[in-house]
Design brief:
The chain is mainly α. It has helices spanning 10-22, 27-33, 40-52, 73-89, 93-102, 110-126; strands at 56-61, 64-69. Strand 1 and strand 2 (64-69) form a beta hairpin.
């Protein structure tokens, strides 16, 4: 991916979010998922612009274009998480995790807590930085 998602405008990021979440999306599907959606032609224009910038590519699906990301969604998530960590948490993983736990809409399940504990243990085995 040529530029980090942080370089995109608000609406472009919203469109990318829809495509990433869906895996693939037509202009009509993007339009349906956008908050306070612009016109259909505006969405199509922004999809073409994101394609020109190298963030998306399209495939033909019947009579319409379906858009997909050019990068692996996991890579996009890692890049966005790095930007979030740097921008809002001064690169403090502890602060970021504490904030995420504090804003959850519902308590974590025992299974989710166990998985988080496993991830923390994996990091511990990789070597603790002091």
């Amino acid at each position: 991916m040529p530029n980090p998602l942080a370089d995109l405008g608000r609406r472009e990021r919203q469109i990318m979010d829809v495509v990433i979440r869906r895996g693939r999306a037509s202009a009509a599907e993007v339009l349906a998922d956008l908050p306070d959606p612009p016109s259909y032609s505006s969405v199509r224009s922004m999809l073409r612009l994101l394609e020109e910038k190298g963030f998306l590519h399209h495939e033909w699906e019947g009579p319409r274009h379906v858009y997909l990301t050019t990068a692996d969604p996991k890579q996009i998530q890692r890049s966005a998480a790095r930007d979030l960590l740097r921008t809002f948490f001064n690169n403090s993983m502890e602060s970021a995790v504490a904030a995420m736990l504090g804003v959850a809409e519902k308590p974590l399940t025992d299974q989710e807590l166990k998985r988080l504990a496993q991830l923390i243990e994996q990091q511990r085995r990789k070597g603790v930085r002091s």
